[in-house]
Specification:
By secondary structure, the protein is an alpha/beta fold. The protein has helices at residues 3-21, 36-45, 86-98, 160-165; strands at residues 27-34, 51-58, 64-69, 72-74, 77-78, 102-117, 126-137, 175-178. The strands form two sheets. A five-stranded mixed sheet has the order 1-6-7-2-5. It has a three-stranded antiparallel sheet with strand order 4-3-8, with no helix packed on it. A hairpin with an 8-residue loop joins strand 6 and strand 7 (126-137). The model is unreliable at 145-168 (pLDDT under 50).
Length: 189
Amino acid sequence: MSVAEGSRDRVEERLVALEEDYSGFPVNQTTLAVPRKAYERTGERCQRGIVDAYVQLYNERDDVLLVENDGEWVVPHGEPRTNERVVAGTERAIRERTGIDCVLTGLARVTILGVRDESEPERSPIYRLIAVFTAETDSEGSVATGTPVVTGEPAAADGGDEAAAEGESTLADGVRWHPTLPDSAVPPH
C-alpha cells in the first residue's frame, strides 16, 4: 500500500474516532498543490501521525493562549502520534509545547486536506486531517506538573506586569495569554 493510500485510510479511521468523541462538527475538504519536496515531507510526516491539531485554549478569564511561530502569534498546534487517540495525543502535545494542562471541550471543525505534487499532478494525493479544537485549562493557566516555568516574562499579552502582579503564573518564552482570538491565529483550512 502506498503512502497516499495509507494516508486516506488513516484519515478515515481518525475521522470515525473523532465522531465517537464529538458530534455535530463541520467537515470540509480541500486540496493543496505543493512543490515536490513539500509533498515528500508530507509523506514522511504521515509516518509520525496524520492529524494536525490546533487548539483554541481559554483560561478562566476567557483569554486565549497563543504561541509564537515564525514571528506571528497563533493558537498552539500539536500532532497526536500514530499510536495515540486524537484527544489524548492533542492534550499531550499542547502540554509539551506550552507547559499548560488543558482539557479539550469541543471540536470546532475538521478539514480533510489532500496534498498534491504540483510537478507531477498524476501522483495520488497524500491526506491529512486538520482539527481545530476548543479547550479550557484546569485552573487559571495551570502549569503542567514537572514543567519548568520561566520567570521574568509577562504573563499576558496586554499588561503583563499587571497580570504577573496579580499572582498569575509566568509562561515560557513564546507563550502568552491574549484577551481576544486574532483572526490570523487559526489556520483558514
